[in-house]
Amino acid sequence: MTNRFKTGGYHVAMSIVSFLWIAPILWVVVISLRSFDDVAANGLGSLPHSFTFSTYKSAWEDADEFRALINSLAVTIPAVILSLGLASIAAYGLARYNIPFRRTVLLLMLMGNLLPPQILLIPISRFVELTGYYDTLYALIAVHVGFGLGFYTFVLHGFMRDLPREIQEAATIDGAGPGKIYASVILPLTRPAMAALGALSFTWIFNDLLWSITVIRSGEKMPVTPALLGLQGLFVSSWNVIAAGTVIAAVPTLAVFLKFQKHFVSGLAIGAVK
Amino acid sequence: MTATTVEPESPPDAQPRSRSGERRPWRVSPLILAFVFVPFAVEAVWVFWPALQGFWLSLTNWDGLSAPKFVGFGNFGDMFSDPIFKTALKNTAIWLVLFGGLSVIGGFGMAMLLQKERRGVGIYRAALFTPVVFSLVVTALIWRVFYQPDGLVDSVLRGIGLESWIHPWLADPDTALYAVILPALWRQIGYVMVLYLAGLKAVDPALYEAARVDGASAWQRTRYVTIPQLKGVNSVVLSVIVIDSLRSFDIVWSMTKGGPYHSSELLSTYMYSTAFQSTQLGYASAIAVVIFILALAVILGYLIRAFREET
User: Fold this and answer.
1) Cα–Cα distance, A42 to A54 (Å, whole number)
2) Crossing angle between the packed helical segments A2-32 and B101-113, to the nearest 10 degrees
3) Cis upstream peptide for A48 (omega within 30°)
4) Phi, psi of B61 (to 5 degrees)
5) Does B151 reach chain A within 8 Å, measured CB to CB?
6) Are strands B69-70 and B60-61 parallel, antiparallel or unpaired?
């Protein structure tokens, strides 16, 4: 009896906590569906008296959030592919071959990712200006690749190092060269780690603010995360439109998370340094 | 397993890893050298070289137009008489203690409550974890809607008869910093919880069994089995939290820009506005170096752990 009572209490308490955790999100969704007049008349704290999708239209078209999302994807997808591709070849070389100073190289690469980004902001903004890439999405892709590489290399290296020797020996006897072994033996086996890092890096790059506002200036090139901040200036006190914009900006990472839930959580458990 | 992987300490009699040298009999071909060199070069161009420049710039006086002028440690001396810097430093310390401490306590507590696989646990975990996938800008906007005058916070206070508590949370220098910490915590607790859940999962159930046979109470099992077994996770969580705290920028920038009157300024936001709004590039670099120095102990700890994994 007391046990059942305890279980009941546990579930009541945890349900309340979970609800409180989700409530802010639900509340913003509710506000995003209210009309301007309703918010103006009843305040943001009241229950809705209206229902409209026009807020989403405003955010999508007038604030050009559609373009911001395209920019985000145009940065995020190439950056994820490039950084994981580069990290995986580096990890393969370092984990499976007798590279001189390989430990130093690996730790240097990891250290690069542990540096506070503030140290790099000014030199990098100068560098992209000098090379003529300031205010381009290319600069943003390059920054994300350079800064993320070290950590991904480190994680993949740990993974590849523990793969058994025999598989590589067998492939070598069959006459496969290092490139072939990487592509057809090692890479397929690192798929779980790649999936975890893919889900994680997508989220990090998509959600980035600091690098975007450092190397991008013009509004039409802003990815969706910094563009969302600009939305506040555009729609001063139209909190229903801002809420709609917020929901739109949150959907892609939420979708990635829901689709790759297992990978995502295992990736985080790798102990991300973000 | 990597140094960063959450796993319990291995028992002392575990097999030592074989020497790495004898596990890599393959000779290095030019292709393999290129495999390592190209990514390393990319990182060198985008991280190592700019970092060295950043350290150098911290010793100069530079407005971005004329040539940087070498001033030695002058920028660091200027900090002592800069009240905004002191505020930013103090706030960063508050941030570290409050944001860091509470997210560890909250995350660990939630992980303990949700570690047993039972009905409904998946839903509770997912609920706590959801904010982790949002960007900090999204988080900031969600909470700004909350804090608006007439927003939900005020409505709730009015509803429970605490009208006197109604307050311009983000606009008051006394409360702005704390009003920003709350959303940051909301997002971080789920993340720390996941790290601890992974650590708890890795604890050998036989240990609990043995403790139970020995008649240990639930509290004793936690105290003498769980907590010691989580040593590895703890150091990971600690590193993550310190580095996260020192890097925190997005949430403050999106909610208050460090204001009002620099009351919610962190070192990271102060560095950014010094660099890109008042273009004191030398001084801003020096602030960045201070952030680096504060993070150094943790970075070194992390690297040492990684190094040990490798040997």
Assistant:
1) 18
2) 130
3) no
4) -110, 120
5) yes
6) antiparallel
Per-residue pLDDT of B96-140, as tens digits, reads 999 999 999 999 999 999 988 888 899 999 999 999 999 999 999
Residue A272 has pLDDT above 80, yes or no: no
Best CA proximity match to B201, nearest among B174, B175, B233: B233
**Residue B60 belongs to what H/E stretch?**
strand B60-61
User: Rounded to whole angstroms, how far apart are CA atoms B144 and A268?
Assistant: 27
Q: Is B217 exposed, middle or buried (0-12, 13-18, 19+ CB in 10 A)?
A: exposed
Yes or no, beta carbons of B47 and A112 under 8 Å apart: yes
Cα separation, B311 vs A4, whole angstroms: 51
pTM value? 0.89
Q: Answer yes or no: is pLDDT of A53 > 80.
A: yes
Model pLDDT, residue A235? 79
Minimal C-alpha gap between B222 and chain A (Å): 19
Q: Which value, in Å, is the radius of gyration of the alpha carbons in chain A?
A: 23
A35's torsion region: left (phi>0), alpha (psi -120 to 50) or beta? Answer: beta
Contact criterion met (CB below 8 Å) for A209 and B254: yes
A40 close contact with B: CB closer than 8 A: no
CB B263 within 8 A of CB B176: yes
Q: How far is CA B65 from the centre of its chain?
A: 35
Lowest mean pLDDT among A35-49, A91-105, B191-205: A35-49
- Give the tens place of pLDDT for each residue, B228-279: 888 888 888 888 899 889 999 999 999 999 989 999 999 999 999 999 999 9
B36 touches chain A (CB under 8 A): yes
User: Would you call B248 an interface residue with chain A, using a CB distance cutoff of 8 Å?
Assistant: no
Contact, A17 vs B121, CB < 8 A? no
- Percent share of chain A, pLDDT over 70: 97
**Percentage of the residues of chain B whose pLDDT score is greater than 90:** 55
Contact between residue A245 and residue A85 where contact means Cβ atoms under 8 Å apart: no
Question: Is residue B6 very low, low, confident or very high in pLDDT (cuts 50, 70, 90)?
Answer: very low
Confidence check: pLDDT of B24 > 60: no
Closest residue of A to B137, CA-based? A225
Enumerate residues 6+ apart whose C-beta is below 8 A from A132. Answer: none
Q: How far apart are CA A7 and CA A13, in angstroms?
A: 10
Measured CA to CA, the distance from residue B290 to residue B268 in angstroms comes to 10
Window 120-179 of A: residues touching B by CB (8 A cutoff) are: 120-127, 142-143, 145-147, 149-150, 153-155, 157-159, 161-162, 165, 168, 172, 177-179
Distance CA A138, CA A78 (A): 10
